[in-house]
């Protein structure tokens, strides 16, 4: 398997003062790891969280950094602010960070569909960084990112008219408390004890259910509509037909997706495979003899998106293909993509 992302040499790049807001969460912690692994040119790293975590420490490049309380007046001297907080908190802190002179990379949904805020997957639309008008760049939804990385290189060669996608989403998408709940309830199930879900509306251990986000009048939940609307914006393809079904499954931290593509012109599985073999951020894992394709365990703690089961959609011969992909929701689906955006800056 080909590993795509490697630590980057940054000796020729001016250092930046960076803030990570929400540093105690799963994504915030992974942002710090990515900054260190990729040798991002950090001058000062200012780590912020809620008042409950004030005074605790996190480690960065061998040093213990003290967490301060996230506040609107805490961004003086910061060049880049990485937001790993909920949308309402981002709406509070992001404008304040911009006012203080920082560029914000926001992992929440607050600014994704704002026409003045680019929505970026660096392997897809890095030049969109030039369209920033509010000082804020949005990090897409995790499922959107994991789908877009392998679909885009195919779309560039042969326009995709329609995407049908079903997701199998890990507990990590709901944060560390959800991951802890999955671990605890799985242990309780194994021991024959009662299971009491608190983070999720339903038992996730030994179960699965429709994504726990609100349903719109059209019957789609917000996660599904994010995949539709965000993909259209990232691809600059407002006419693209995208429909998603998003399901929460008892997996810790890597999402899988079954993707069906309809192309404008004929494309064979062999041509698609050749394109994906050289696509940035993609690793092929597709052994038909052994029936081996990407699994969540393959993608966990890895930077790239794994692609397998590359085959013709026999219901649409010649113009339809089907893929199975897996990607780490915390890394490429969130923290890594945000740090890659910061690298564009």
Strand order of the largest sheet: 10-11-9-12-15-14-13
Radius of gyration: 20 Å
User: How many helix segments?
Assistant: 8
The portion of residues assigned to helices is: 25-40%
Helix and strand pattern? EHEEEEEHEEHEHEHEEHEHEEH
At CATH level 2, the architecture of the largest domain is: 2-Layer Sandwich
Ends distance: 30 Å
Q: What structural class should be given to the helix and strand makeup? A: alpha/beta
Poorly predicted regions: 1-12
Mean pLDDT: 94
Q: What is the level 1 CATH name of the largest domain?
A: Alpha Beta
Count all strands and give the number.
15
- Global geometry: globular
Report the major sheet: 7 strands, mixed
Give me the CATH fold name of the largest domain: Dihydrodipicolinate Reductase, domain 2
Please give the oligomerization state of what you see. single chain
Domains, number: 2
């Amino acid at each position: 398997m080909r590993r795509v992302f490697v630590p980057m040499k940054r000796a020729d790049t001016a250092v930046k003062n960076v803030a990570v807001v929400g540093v105690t969460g799963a994504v915030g912690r992974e942002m710090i790891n990515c900054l260190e692994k990729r040798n991002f040119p950090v001058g000062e790293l200012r780590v912020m969280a809620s008042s409950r975590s004030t005074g605790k420490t996190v480690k960065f490049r061998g040093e213990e950094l003290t967490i301060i309380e996230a506040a609107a007046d805490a961004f003086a001297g910061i060049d880049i602010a990485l937001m790993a907080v909920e949308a309402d908190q981002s709406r509070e802190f992001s404008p304040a960070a911009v006012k203080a002179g920082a560029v914000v990379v926001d992992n929440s949904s607050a600014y994704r569909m704002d026409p003045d805020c680019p929505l970026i997957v660096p392997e897809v639309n890095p030049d969109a960084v030039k369209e920033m008008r509010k000082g804020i760049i949005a990090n897409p939804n995790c499922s959107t990112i994991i789908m877009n990385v392998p679909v885009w290189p195919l779309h560039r060669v042969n326009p995709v008219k329609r995407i049908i996608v079903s997701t199998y989403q890990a507990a990590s998408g709901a944060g560390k408390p959800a991951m802890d709940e999955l671990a605890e309830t799985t242990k309780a199930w194994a021991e024959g004890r009662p299971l009491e879900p608190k983070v999720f509306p339903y038992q996730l251990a030994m179960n699965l259910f429709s994504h726990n986000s609100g349903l719109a009048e059209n019957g789609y939940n917000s996660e599904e509509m994010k995949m539709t609307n965000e993909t259209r914006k990232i691809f600059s393809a407002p006419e693209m037909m995208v429909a998603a079904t998003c399901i929460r499954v008892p997996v810790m931290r890597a999402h899988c997706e079954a993707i069906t593509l309809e192309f404008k012109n004929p494309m064979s599985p062999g041509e698609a495979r050749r394109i994906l073999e050289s696509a940035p951020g993609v690793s092929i894992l597709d052994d038909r003899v052994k029936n081996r394709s990407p699994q969540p365990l393959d993608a966990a703690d890895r930077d790239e998106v794994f692609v397998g089961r590359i085959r013709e959609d026999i219901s649409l011969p010649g113009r339809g293909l089907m893929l199975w992909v897996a990607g780490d929701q915390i890394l490429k689906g969130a923290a890594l993509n945000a740090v890659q955006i910061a690298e564009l800056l």
